[in-house]
Amino acid sequence: MKLLTKEIEKRIPPLYSQENNPDPTCVVKFFTPWTSWTWFVIEGARDGDDWRFFGWVEGFDKELGYFGLKELSDINGPVGLKIERDLYFEPTKLSEVM
């Protein structure tokens, strides 16, 4: 599965553009199908041949933070499982995701 399409790239606000927004919109959801880890993208930008995102991360803790597309793509789960993009996720306010 392609984690980031050209169409989705166009919808992602640039990094730091949502800093003053008290309730920004999460535009993409990535998840591990074998654990409860989830990443919600609020904003991002190309970083060389990678993408740098800022968003809400639910893992060991729940927190706002930065993560990279390559970082997500390099994660390997049991029996070859990979990070997936939620194909049915609709842009959702951060307050609703939290």
Q: What's the domain count?
A: 1
Q: Which H/E pattern describes the elements?
A: HEEEEEHEEH
Q: What kind of sheet is the major sheet?
A: 5 strands, antiparallel
Strand content: 35-45%
Strand tally is 7
How would you name the oligomeric state of the polypeptide chains in this document? Answer: single chain
Can you give the mean pLDDT?
96
Give the overall shape, derived from the CA principal axes. Answer: globular
If helices are DSSP runs of H or I spanning 4 or more residues, what is the number of helices?
A: 3
- pLDDT below 50 for ≥5 consecutive residues: which ranges? none
Structural class: alpha+beta
* N-end to C-end Cα span: 26 Å
Provide an overview of this structure.
- With 98 residues, this protein is of the alpha+beta class.
- The chain is built from three helices and seven strands; from the N terminus they run αβββββαββα.
- The strands form two sheets. The protein has a five-stranded antiparallel sheet.
- Strand 3 and strand 4 (50-58) form a beta hairpin.
- The model has no long low-confidence stretch (mean pLDDT 96).
Write the layout of secondary structure elements.
Blueprint: H1 6-11, E1 25-26, E2 28-31, E3 38-47, E4 50-58, E5 62-68, H2 69-73, E6 84-85, E7 92-93, H3 94-97
Antiparallel strand pairs: 1-7, 2-3, 2-6, 3-4, 4-5
